[in-house]
Amino acid sequence: MIARGNAPYDTGRPYNNLLRRLNASDFALLEPHLAHEESPAGGLLYNSGDDVDTVHFPCGPGLASFMVPNEDGRLGVGRSYTSRVIQTFKAEGVLETRRGSILVRNRDALRLRSCLCNESVKNHFEEVLRGVYPTEEAHRP
User: Fold this and answer.
1) pLDDT value at position 8?
2) Which distant-in-sequence residues (6+ apart) come within 8 Å of 43 by Cβ?
3) Is residue 114 part of a domain?
4) Do 61 and 111 reside in the same domain of the chain?
5) How many C-beta neighbours within 10 Å does residue 92 have?
6) Which of 12, 26, 76, 128 is a plausible cystine mate for 22, CB 3.0–4.6 Å?
7) Could you tell me if 89 and 112 are in contact, meaning their C-beta atoms sit under 8 angstroms apart?
8) Number of domains in the chain
9) What sections of the chain are H helices per DSSP?
10) Where in the sequence is the domain holding 103, given as residue range(s)?
11) 45 and 81, same structural domain?
């Protein structure tokens, strides 16, 4: 397992929402297997069809994309379209770009413009973790 990124460790844990939500005993099981690793912009974690033997936990401000080839071999989103979307977000003050990186300036505005993918993943993890770590509300009569 690899905890990626160079974000703050103020809680003694890597800056990853999943790792930070684990209770102490569950995190203690994973901690000896975690290693910090930097990844360059555009770095490849896996190729399609690879056997996965390492789990990556992106930490801090980062972005991981899933790129799956279509039947004709092209990727799902073209570079020119992505560039136009980024330019629009920059003009609206949502994003800022620097060489090899994208900085989110207005998280709420970006969230409003995003597809339901991010919210679906967030809801899934909250649902899964709620079963593992019940909230105080679950214990109220």
Assistant:
1) 45
2) none
3) yes
4) no
5) 13
6) 26
7) no
8) 2
9) 17-21, 24-30, 79-91, 107-113, 116-132
10) 76-141
11) no
